[in-house]
User: What shape does this take?
Amino acid sequence: MNENKNVRDLRDAQPYDIAANIVRILDDKKARDLKLLHVEDQSSITSYIVLCSGSSNTQIKSLAGEVEYVMSLCGQDDLNMEGYAEGSWVVIDYGSVMVHVFGRDTRDFYKLEKLYGETSEVDISGLVSI
Assistant: This one.
């Protein structure tokens, strides 16, 4: 039996529930600068974007790998993953949720948060450890 607290049945889950579980997975793996953006009104391809940073290529790969692994246990297989081999920016596509795991320099350069504005940021304080 798997004892990971983030393993739950998400096969019929709403986009927010998928995104919230991804936030919890990343928080448990010590992702930095974790943010959840609700972009449904601004994007035709996804409802939520999860952003976080890793401190090294190894941690970036570890964060992305953990999301992919735990979400597969939840019944949510990703549609696509890009950038894993390079490890400086990994994008995981869950359809209604896009996950971006960045290195600090890459995140600072692209500034995805700025594209959607502060109004799209979701309060994740109830999802993460303090």
